[in-house]
Amino acid sequence: MTTPQIFAFAILAAMMGLFVWGRLRYDIVAVLALLACLFTGIVPYDKAFSGFSDDIVIIVASALIVSAAVARSGMIEAAVRPIAPWLTTPTIQIFVLTAVVAALSGFVKNIGALAMMMPVAFQLARRTGTPASAMLMPMAFGSLLGGIVTLVGTSPNIIVSRVRQEILGEPFQMFDFAPVGVLLAIGGVAFLAFGWRLLPERKGAASLDAAFNLEGYTTEVSVPENSEFVGKTVRELETLSENEVEVLAILRRRQRNSSPTGGVQLRAGDIIILQGDPDALERIVGAAKLKLVRNEVTKDKDTPSDDIGVIEGIVTPESSLVGNTPVTVRLYDHFQINLLAVSRAGRRIAHRLRAVRFQPGDVIMLQGNIKTMPETLGDLRVLPLAERRLSLGRGRRGLIPVLVLAVAMLLVAVSVLPIAVAFFTAAAVIILLKSLSLREAYDAVEWPILIMLGTLIPVSDALRTTGGTDVIAGWLSAVATQLPPIGTLTLIMVAALAVTPFLNNAATVLVMGPIAATFAKTLGLSPDPFLMAVAIGAACDFLTPIGHQSNTLVMGAGGYQFTDYWKLGLPLSIYVVVAGVPLIALFWPLVPH
After folding, report:
1. CA dihedral 155, 160, 166, 167 (to 10 degrees)
2. What Pfam families does this protein's entry cite (predicted)?
């Protein structure tokens, strides 16, 4: 081996060792690996930051934004509600979610199918208590399994089809992958429905919100004429929130009904006092098309909508609010903020918010210009709580994010747009249509993951540019000549599985495809099964978060560590090899007719 090749292998080995060690965060490890490649000369300086322009960075960032908008749309609750009573155990939940993602991935890009279903997983996790980390990685792996079923499900299939056309003059067709892919996917999904127990329980980025979760928030809403709950009962409204929100009182034409019974019907114009945690309140306001009652309008006409936010604070004993109501202190007139909700430990607040007399220790939810809010809270002597992504008061955009994602995936399926452009466009449209504010969009992006991806792409490419892949090919050739045909087929698939995390799946097919076809011709065997083995091995990267964007997409949301992937991915990879090789040999005979 040459000196650059030795450097390439050594840096990759050290990087993997640091990932497994886990004492340094993954993005720091990736930065160190890139610096090592730069200062040893195996990555040119002008290529140092080329990874940040790679499609995978755009795809992952855009998919996170689109997924966040779908989660905020309110459509997830509607989709989950009819089947929720049957999704009672983690095994059933994971099986259904993984199977749906796998089925969708055969016909739309697997990362698109995963982005569409991730909000469903979060919804189930919230409702049933099953950790989201138990669902997300199986779903990501299910998207990879589903992608191998058809020509368009995953990039390796498309590329290996092109390689076959160059070698044999004819590409693979749409469903040539299906006989092997369907059986592998069925077995893999069945394994994941039980194998999720191999994963440690992790908490994703949302766990900080849970730490500050206050269930006793009281807010007031009105029932507009277009609400579907006009004529329905209090019990039906509380059932919609799965009893996470309680109706404390109803005010109708200056008459007050405190602690209304479940059979009381709601009418247009009713003012309802609700109590629950912020997320549950936000969901029920959106799902029932209720309207928050505020002292004034949502914002100043001179304030950009993206600067309007919600923040929580604690009323201190020195606050000028103590002993006063929002009306007497003229909260909006003097400070341009709206009171959305109040939480008072150990006390129920069953009257109008405008009549609430603030007390020391009250936790209040305020809406206003997020840029000037800290100064305003200081003037009021209100101690701000840790920043949270609160959505109460922002409203929902219903079907819009789901339709935008569906159109984007359709354009990809019919080859009008590449996947990166489609997702980027979808994210931009969603923001322009105000389904997600700019602040929420930036919050949705997992920036450490993008740093990791951008820095690792030139690092992994160094294995190819230094000729390291040629060295690997030479090793494979030396071993392959000593094996029987089925052993050579197994070797090719294992090699593709092992190389994919470092080259990405597209590069793996481009490197391994011609090597596999050459092996086959040298041994007098058919190239087709070997090309199939390369495609499946390259598409089924279950060992790391960096080999496929689906794995990367769930890393931050699931709170996974680098080493979590092989705990579930290694047995699944063994299954793919043990089951996949005989299936390929069965449907694609090794000896040409």
Report:
1. 180
2. CitMHS, TrkA_C
